[in-house]
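My main concern about presentation is that the manuscript never shows what a single data entry looks like. An entry of this sort, consisting of the sequence and the corresponding backbone structure tokens, reads as follows:
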Amino acid sequence: DRRQRPGPGRVQPAVGRVVMLMIGDRNYSARVRNFLRHYPEILKRLPGATSFDLRLDNRITALAEERRGG
């Protein structure tokens, strides 16, 4: 039984808005569960954050957003 791993561009509706998660290539299920558990507090502290690095176990890093000219 091979489980499908989340990949780039994969959408997981769970937090009520679009976020980008960098989860690495192992422990991804635990990392996403940890993010979802802490997301309400993250949203309070950083309401504009939409990109997060979860590649280190038990650590969530909000990434700076790139501003695109136009």
Q: What stands out?
A: The helical segments are 28-45. The mean pLDDT is 80.
